[in-house]
Structure formats: structure tokens, C-alpha cells
Amino acid sequence: MPEGHSVHRIARQFDRNFVARQVAASSPQGRFAEGASLLNGRVATEVRAVGKQMFLAFDDDLWLRVHLGMYGAWDFAGEILVDPTIASANGRMGQTNQRGTELGDERVMDAAGENSLTSIGAPRRTRVHVRMSEQTKGLADEGTEWPPPVVGQVRLRLLTDITCADLRGPTACEVQSPDEMLATLAGLGPDPLVGDPAEGEERFTAVVRRKPTPIGLLLMNQSVVSGIGNVYRAELLYRARQNPHTPGREVPEEVVRGIWRDWVRLLQIGVATGQMMTMDDLDPEAYRKAMASRDDRHWVYHRAGLPCRVCGTAIVVEEAAARKLYWCPYCQA
């Protein structure tokens, strides 16, 4: 499912294009008709991303909570205001990144349709079709019909006078009261981009250091820390040279704190570039290559059977709580 950087990027897209605007809400699929009717005609007032969940506030104290899960996706169409501080939104954005991002006339693509050039300059308006999710099948061609026709099973459509956002296949999509929203937040672990990172470090360290659960499972527990998924889990543990099977309470405190601080850094990079870049100290050519291909972007993730980039030992993949765990049995012994 989309990891923390993706959801923060999606929230920023909503902040630029929906907050302070009146929104028409509908459920073409019909499964969210009652919720859409509650939101229809209201003004979006605030958006928050915490870990893998997004909360969009509307007037009269209503909140829309969305968890994309494994198959959810947001598709944006119309005039989209691009943030100059992060990679361009002209394309696919999600856990596996974006498709078709452009900088001027330049384009970097790999076989998976990913790229990561950063948009430079003042915000601009561009008419595009954008998908934000983990898994997508390409982009629709730009069209002139407005609003755009409904394609597929759209759970929720949010529409302003110039921008459309269609939600498909989420794990969770519900309208919450302020108390319900706060209760959901209370169940989530710290997110480096929400609140004080130093306080988040203390909270994360305290929880991990008292748990008998393996650290490899704790990092995926959203009540322990928000936003880490399969990719970041594998990479953070490798970068810390930490065995994923070590009980949390047996991991040295300085290692736990180091993992948190590394997560702070990697999450910021992910939000800024749209890529889960976990390699360090690359020269310009190697960096560009890594940004253009996920095969050159990670230490261990998705490298089962391939030699460790440091020691040469074959990377192992195993099942851990029904998810694939990649690690080096020598470097992380």
C-alpha cells in the first residue's frame, strides 16, 4: 500500500486544489452515496496526512477519512496547481512513485514508468490527469470534456469549478465527527511530518524499547510509527544494520533512535522527490540513474537472491506477517 510519503503528497495536492473551495461530492458507484450527500456543497477547510491516512475537513465539523489500502487510488483532472517545492504532479504519484513527471522538455522514465525530476520555479497551472496510488496502469489522455466522464468504479468524486478528484478502491472512506477523527489519530503512532519530531522520537523509542515483538514487525505497526511500509521497513533496517528478528526491547536505544532519525530524513526525501530513495552518497550520474530506476534506488528491497551491495551475500526474502521482508543475513546478522 502507499507509504507515508505518498499520502503526504496527496494531502498537499488537496491543500492546493480543494481547501477553501466549495466542493460538489457524489458517489458514482453508489457505495458512498450517504457520505457524499453529507459533504456535497460544503467548503473544504483543512487537510491532514498522518502516516497512511488522509483527513479532509469540511465546514460544519465534518471530516472525510480515507485510507487507500492496497488498491485505492486518487485520480485528479482539470487545472492542478503544482507545488514548486516537490516533484511535479504531472503523472503517477504513489508508493511506486510517479509516471510522466516533466521538467521543461526533459523527461526521465524507466521501464516501470517512473521518474523523479523536480519541478523548478513558480507554481503553475496545468491541465492534466494525475493518478495517486500504489499501483496504476498508466495515464488517461488529456480531455476537454468537463467535468470528465466517470470511468470505472468511482467510490467518491470531489469536484470544484476547475479540479476533479476521483477515489477508487480505498480500504476506508468515511465521514467522521471531530471526536471520531481525533480517536482515529490517537490510535496512530508518531509521524515525523506531524508535530515535533523530537517528541515523536521519544514516543517511538519508548514503545519499541518495551516490546518483545521483532523490530521488523514493529516498524510496520501503524500504532508504533506512522507511514512505514514494506519498502521503508526493509531499507531502514538495512541502513541500521539491524537484524529484523531482534525483539524491540533488545535493540539498543541508540539504534532505535537512529532508525527514527533516518525515517525523518528518508520521509522528507520521499515527499520532496516522490521517490523512496534510500541510497546515500551517490555521484550525480549514479543519483540520476537511481532516480530513474528503482533497481538502482534501494539497498535490499526487491533484491532477493541478488548480492548485497556491501558484502556480496545473497539477499534473503521471507514472509513476515503476510508481507515480504528483505534483508542481508550477513550485514544484519
From TrEMBL:
Domain named FPG-type is located at 299-333
Which cofactors does this protein require? Zn(2+)
Write down the InterPro entries for this protein, in alphabetical order. Answer: FPG_cat (IPR012319), FPG_N (IPR035937), H2TH_FPG (IPR015886), Ribosomal_uS13-like_H2TH (IPR010979), Znf_DNA_glyclase/AP_lyase (IPR000214), Znf_FPG/IleRS (IPR010663)
- Domain of life assignment: Bacteria
* Span of domain Formamidopyrimidine-DNA glycosylase catalytic: 2-100
Looking at its record, which EC class is this enzyme? lyase
Give the Enzyme Commission number.
Answer: 4.2.99.18
Among Gene3D superfamilies, the record links this protein to: 1.10.8.50, MutM-like, N-terminal
- Entry keyword set: DNA damage, DNA repair, DNA-binding, Glycosidase, Hydrolase, Lyase, Metal-binding, Multifunctional enzyme, Zinc, Zinc-finger
Q: Which SUPFAM superfamilies match?
A: Glucocorticoid receptor-like (DNA-binding domain), N-terminal domain of MutM-like DNA repair proteins, S13-like H2TH domain
Tell me yes or no: is Hydrolase among this UniProt entry's keywords.
Answer: yes
Q: Which PANTHER family match?
A: ENDONUCLEASE 8
The UniProt similarity line reads:
Belongs to the FPG family.
In Swiss-Prot or TrEMBL terms, this protein is called: DNA-(apurinic or apyrimidinic site) lyase
Q: What's the source species for this entry? A: Microbacterium kribbense
